[in-house]
Amino acid sequence: MEEELLTGGSSKGVISQAWTRVSQIHQSTLDRWTPHHKARWIGSAVLLLIFGLRVFTKQGWYIVTYALGIYHLNLFIAFLTPKIDPAMDFDAEDNGPELPTRANEEFRPFIRRLPEFKFWYSVTKSTLIGLVCTFFECFNIPVFWPILVMYFITLFCITMKRQIRHMIKYRYLPFTHSKPKYQGHEETAAKVSSK
Fold first, then answer.
1. What is d(CA 121, CA 177) in angstroms, rounded to the nearest whole number?
2. Helical spans, DSSP H, in 59-144
3. Tally of CB atoms within 10 A around 61
4. Which site in 22, 86, 88, 127 is 20 to 30 Å from 3, CA atoms measured?
5. Sign of CA dihedral 181, 87, 77, 124
6. Which residue ranges does UniProt annotate as crossing the membrane (predicted)?
7. Around Cβ 81, how many Cβ atoms within 10 Å?
8. Tell me, what's the pLDDT at 136?
């Protein structure tokens, strides 16, 4: 009896150790990819292109494509949405929260509900799953694809219209490309002392 417990326990221990090692290698790989924004997104775009070419050349798996598009749209909306919804952060005297207008007011940076890395990771993982699904005929459900395209375009327009209204109402911009960059107190003091 003890021998069975020992051998069964050791095989579970080996499996547990192997799984832990695979998890560590996976996390290490993700950590190495984190600073390479452009390369990661180019890789995801290539993967999406391969998926699209496979669907186009095989003329099928439209339901998989539609589901993937809806999932990517939901990820994109979460990427554009602030972590703390300003609609829920009303002051008693205001109509809603506002960004600071004076230097002595609190600075609240835009924090996304879905960070960029998790957005990329989810897009890549879901595209890989979708690509794998195209190799199984059971997912190739016959459907009139122009209706799915119209549904997706309608859903995209309605969702983006609502998101843009939300951005305008609460005056936030989820992108930092054209925003002014402010210097910290220490950086300003260092520049003055160097002159």
1. 22
2. 62-80, 116-133
3. 25
4. 22
5. positive
6. 39-57, 63-81, 143-160
7. 17
8. 95
> Closest by alpha carbon to 70, among 131, 128, 29, 130?
130
Question: Is the C-alpha dihedral spanning 111, 35, 129, 23 positive or negative?
Answer: negative
Model pLDDT for residues 126-177, shown as the tens digit of each residue: 999 999 999 999 999 999 999 999 999 999 999 999 999 988 888 777 776 6
What is the C-alpha separation between 73 and 164, in angstroms, rounded? Answer: 14
- Pair 110, 82: CB distance under 8 Å: yes
Calculate Rg over the CA atoms of the chain.
24
Helix and strand counts by DSSP (H, E) for the chain: 6, 0
For residues 114 and 80, the answer to whether their CB atoms sit within 8 Å is no
Spatial CB neighbours of 113, under 8 Å, sequence gap ≥ 6: 78, 79, 81, 82, 83
Question: Which residues pair with residue 112 across a beta bridge?
Answer: 82
1-52: per-residue pLDDT in tens?
Answer: 444 444 555 677 889 999 999 999 999 999 999 999 999 999 999 999 999 9
What is the predicted pLDDT for the residue at 167? 85
Please check whether residue 93 is in contact with residue 39, taking contact to mean a CB–CB distance below 8 angstroms.
no
Q: How many CA atoms lie within 13 A of 147 on its CB side?
A: 4
The verdict on pTM exceeding 0.90 is no
Q: Give the side-chain half-sphere CA count within 13 A for 125.
A: 9
